Amino acid sequence: MKHYILKTFVALAALTMVFSCEPVENRENLPAITLKAADIDIAVTQDPSNPNKVTMTNLTDDIIPYWSYVNSNGDELGHSNQQTNTVTFPFAGTYKVYFTAYTRGGAVAAEPVSVTINSNNADYFNDPKWNYLTNGTAGKKWVLDMDSPMGWCGLDYPAATGDNWNWFPDYASASWCMVNKDWGSMTFNLNGNYNVSVTQTAVADNTQTTKTGTFTFDMPNDKLIFNGGTEMLRGGDYYPDCSNWVSVHVLEVTENSLRLAVIRDQSRTGEGKCQIMFHYKPAP
Fold first, then answer.
1. What CA–CA distance (Å, rounded) separates 3 from 211?
2. What is the rounded CA–CA span in Å between residue 204 and residue 256?
3. Bridge partners, 43 (sequence order)
């Protein structure tokens, strides 16, 4: 098991995402110290029984931690502000783990740690949801299901309690929600990486823009993150109502149905916060 103690400074740009673990900027309660890069103490270790499983531990006192990890292409796979963060890298390759310590004196970054994964871990994808979403290495294309393309629900949906209301109408009952047209597609695959390609149709006309990147599927927390400049496929004129189309809530994923939701947190008409759900089906 490798144990890295980092003591070298490098610059690291802070990443921001709603719905994700972000660096917390409440530093006023931290001790008034000026941390130096040489004082940073962290550990990045691989599980001896499963080298694809990597644990990142902050050993530095009186700081707010921020982790970020990328693949060999520099694509961000995830980030966290937890003291201890455990992730699985199922694909063989070299990864880098970045760490930034936030203090009252500012942000101090450590030298990135390289982690080498020698073989794929096929067992990681045993949950059928992976195949539902991606169809493995072959890939799977999703398009908006225009029979019932979108809906709205409470912030706690689909929990059994709390703000868990929902309204998922069919298109005939809510045709005002968007024009019935080809809004584009999303394609996911696991061909050596978490690959995603999103083709988005413009609201005003039929112009399409395609972006490719990677994705992170945080299955225990029902969260899907789009990386590399990609965003969730959408229909209608709802983009200004939501500040984040990158980190989204997975409400449902089956072989024939995918429901993803974003938070309406900047409604142009003054409506309260809720989830806006978009409903997809496999492309014909």
1. 38
2. 29
3. 57
Cα angle 33, 34, 36; round to 5 = 135
Phi, psi for 146 (deg, rounded to 5):
-70, -5
**pTM confidence score:** 0.77
Residues 53, 62: Cα–Cα separation, whole Å = 27
Q: Alpha-carbon dihedral of residues 262, 263, 265, 268, nearest 10 degrees?
A: 50
* Local structure of residue 272 (DSSP, 8 states): P
Cα separation of 70 and 93, whole Å? 11
Contact criterion met (CB below 8 Å) for 80 and 58: no
Structure-token match 């703000």, residue found: 163
Cβ atoms within 10 A of the Cβ of 266, count? 11
28-51 pLDDT, tens digit per residue, is 565 556 788 889 999 999 999 999
| Dihedral sign, Cα of residue 143, residue 136, residue 123, residue 116 | negative
Burial 4-34 (b: 16+ CB within 10 A, else e): eebeeeeebeeeeeebbbbbeeebeeeeeee
Q: Are strands 84-88 and 42-47 parallel, antiparallel or unpaired?
A: unpaired
Q: How far, rounded to the nearest angstrom, does the alpha carbon of residue 207 sit from its chain's CA centroid?
A: 27
| 3-class SS letters over 205-240 | CCCEEEEEEEEEEEHHHCEEEECCCCCCCCCCCCHH
Residue 100 structure tokens: 């930034």
Neighbours of 102 (CB within 10 A): 21
Preceding amide of 282 cis, omega within 30: no
pLDDT, tens digit, 9 for 90 and up, residues 167-216: 999 999 999 999 999 999 999 999 989 999 999 999 999 999 999 999 98
3 state DSSP class of 198: strand
The token pair at 262 is 């974003």
